[in-house]
Amino acid sequence: MWDVFVSYSRTDAPRAGVVVSALRAQGLRVFVDDSDVDDFASISTAITRALSRSKALLALYSVDYPARRACQWELTFAYLTGQREGDPRRRVLVVNPEPTNEHIHPVELRDARHWPWPGTPEAADRLAARAGAYLAQLAEPMGETADAGFVPWLPAPARTGSARFVGRLAEQWQVHSALHRHRAPLIGQSGADRAAQLRGMPGVGKSLLAQEYALRFRPAFPGGVFWFDLHAEPGGRSAERTTERYREQVSTVAAALGVEVPDGPLPRLLSALAVVLGERNEPCLWVVDGLPDGLSAEQLHLLRGPHLLAATLVTTRSLRHTSFAEPVDLAPLPAGDGYRLLASRRAPRTEADRHAAVALVHDVGGHPQALGLLAELATRAGFTSLRSRLHSPGTDVLAAVSGGSLPALPRPESGASGAAEDAHGPGADSGAEGAGSAGAGPRPLGSERPVDDVLRLFALASPAPLSPAVLEQVLSTVHPYAPWEAAGIVDRAVDALLGDGALQPDAHDGSWTVHALLARAVRRHDGDTARQEDLRRALLHALAPPPRTAGENGQRPAPRSDASSVTDTDGWTAAGRRVSDRRKASRGAGPVERAAAFDLQVELVTRVGVQPLADREGSLREALASLHSLFVTAREVLHRINGEVGGGPHGDGIRYEGLGGPAPLLLPAIATGLLARLRPFLSHWHPALEEHEAARPEGVSRPAHERAWDREREMRTALAELREPLAALAGRLGRLSGVDLRDPVDD
């Protein structure tokens, strides 16, 4: 029997030697593993036997310790032994050579017998004496029960993990805590306390992390690991087909356990299996890999382990199953882990190569699947050349790996997850799931599908987040959406993208963003680049700051720079000088812009918004139709002026005066202001009036029913309040075109 098993990373061998010598000087029997293994299959029987015959494990927990697979397996062995005895910290001693303890997982060990690094021989002797005193209180070794030995994995074949799996230590412990939270005396004994869900975007490594957890923590589940693969086939799958496939795999497990598979519905089969699991009376792990979106609450409930002895772990890209199980969100790899994955097959050989490798990790946003594909490509060329290929046009380098694939664009309209997340391809071997069948590429985006348009906007804004308000503002200005439809369209589109794992929550006020790799896929593989360009322009106008106005008390606005004299919509040059209306018309706008301003002014001054609607006269429905027609005209003018003038030298709709450049475009700011005035009015009053019209009794005329509306006067008041700001915009259009249609015509 050994008193203590010393677990350490090979990079800490000199430090381990100091600790081992001090422990042996105290007369303790110390086991030290000098082998160097890094996968579960290579962990020897000798190591397992030594652990079972040791009273406790002493972990030299440096920052390198979590990165060594064998170290974490040894630590888990001791932790689970203590957990079965009532205190998971009972069999673990920790020596921390680092100045902080944030690298130590699980967090419970930060409060365990946790000693700092002994900096002197005397300190090492004191540490050894304290360890000896604690070990003397432990009468028995950890024992064979700490190792489950053979743990059945059904349906066969068993997963084996990956030798190049990196990081994710904290997430594994979060999963374990969630699955065993019911053991805490202050936590309610509910089924949800035995369930956890790994959530994340496609290719982020959910399936492989679940495998790693099942392999590393298998001693906690001697009853077996039951793995059900529900990843969708290419093209998606219905909820009914998902349930059918699940039943087929459950039937395989039941038959392997000697259960006579009954005919009939799935609950009958699960009930028969629950009886057998209860008779076996051993904890087991029930893994549902690739849980799709779009299942009902009843269908989700059938995916839980059929007995309370079964802890349920699901992987899903959907963010809409929050109530089903405790979520553990899987983010892209941090920079250090991403670099280790990228360099796992070929280390950078020059300083330039190293800098390129670091940049590649940032370029793909720490996405494990992409890093795995790049790591394979790096075996054929340097990282500098590889980065150039990543950003070059033409064939996507991420599709060049044999058996590899591009991260698939979401298919939220299918009602389930999009492309399969294959846990056995090259991406999976590098710590990620695949995101589509090999060579399939991403699906094309539709020209005017709302979900696709919203995804385009997120990709165009990436890495900046977008709020629902900005999305509504943009969609209300592009064909074919009406302003009163924008809010509902955005809500449904965001919900669908959340179901497919395409969105990531931003820390600021309910905004969302998309991962850099998904944004790249949208920008590179969008089949309708014209639609993308329309949305880009509308997004720029929505995000652009409002035009500068004269300061209070007649003060001039601050100049933009000393070198240019950009003219704004109120007639100030960048040098702070006022220009005349005639000069603004001649210098601030070209013939195309002036003609467009005149056309828009004609539409504006003839509409109800500028022309007053007498009390109890006219039709509110016709007024709404008139303003909507004006809205459409302003939207068309906005797109036309950008297209005809070319959007400015920088693609931002601004022309720069000074340094040989022309003056800025003024019309886009005016048209955007007009849209901003009309949008809230139309969005509010169109559905309100439509609801009243739907309740019109038979035999009552439309005008009479409208006059009987209890909100008629309120709407007329709101309509009258539009007159002043719309008239002001008409005046600006008149100054821009050189013809103010509001003025009386002289004979």
TrEMBL record:
Tell me which InterPro entries the record gives. P-loop_NTPase, TIR_dom, Toll_tir_struct_dom_sf
**Pfam families, A to Z:** TIR_2 (PF13676)
The signal peptide, as residue positions, is: none
* UniProt domain TIR: residue ranges: 1-135
UniProt protein name: TIR domain-containing protein
Q: Which organism is it from?
A: Streptomyces tardus
Which portions of this protein are annotated as coiled-coil regions? Answer: none
User: What biological-process GO terms show up in the record?
Assistant: signal transduction
Q: Which Gene3D superfamilies match?
A: P-loop containing nucleotide triphosphate hydrolases, Toll/interleukin-1 receptor homology (TIR) domain
Region (Disordered) residue spans: 403-447, 542-591
